[in-house]
């Protein structure tokens, strides 16, 4: 006679799971260390102890960098995660946070060094009447988010972070502001100044900031003595082709701009952007006392007079030579640009110079010989490329000089030969400058 309630069979993996419980934690840790992440869920199903150990790896891979939206639901999840004994100590960055200071109190308890940032990728058409929700950062349509109602905030998110930080005396070491859709406004600017500026109006040496606008990226890193201006990395969906956006510190109001220009930056990086000559000279002069390295790559100098490119660029070269004491100068794919220049005129390509003396001697050649010392392709009177330009032999230099004077007035062919001679002369001067100790 069969029993009314037959004993339920235990699945084999359940029986074997009990054996896992008898293993010492050291062996379970070894197992967890050598199990692929995609296989960890299967092991966690069989053993709670192993699940707790593997959670460390899961947290490091999946929970180190989080983005939270401004909803009661998500903030509760943020508090729960930061209070977790395994996940809490592994949080490294949190994007967007409200005036709920509980999460930061817990992070302060763990003595965690994190990056706090704001981002703004909400679609403006979906904000409806919530005008003050800049920095909300949903990343998807609002109607699909798990909250009941949306309350407009009287302050921008950065101000709320600042207020919460003051309340618990917890100051982040780096701010990341992704303001690609609207850029900075007066409220965000004031909150940024509260974070980064000390009482004397100078940058705090321990607080860095990265500001990502629609097309530009500005990294203000006082802790490293470095300022970087470049075009923001884009994808094919953002732009059909690279856009050389102008970079300028004029995007900041006077307090922040003056603090940046008075900071003791030792390195200036310019990347994949265009910049006005006047703006660049102003920045270089502001950092003249402390700047040691200037690194420019894929930078376009925008000039006003297309027939006087050398004269327009000369103020930058003179400033680098006369007002700075650089130990390293890197110029790679630097071009003079004008609306009628097409791809521009290459000033310097793959050039790196070390020591003050060498930099000064090389810039002397660039200033004295004007465009003939530049790296763009020249053509001699035969129409062939004249990249190297050859070297003018010492015994024929005076002869070439006299010939050049005679060729200047002999039509287009004469001018081409004259320019070829000046080019060779500049090449020789540059070689001598680099050869001198």
TrEMBL record:
All copies of domain F-box, residue ranges: 17-63
Region described as Disordered: spans on this chain: 378-415
Database matches in SMART domains: FBOX
Cross-referenced InterPro entries: F-box-like_dom_sf (IPR036047), F-box_dom (IPR001810)
Compositional bias of kind Acidic residues: 382-412
Coiled coil spans: none
Descriptive protein name: F-box domain-containing protein
Source organism: Aureobasidium melanogenum (Aureobasidium pullulans var. melanogenum)
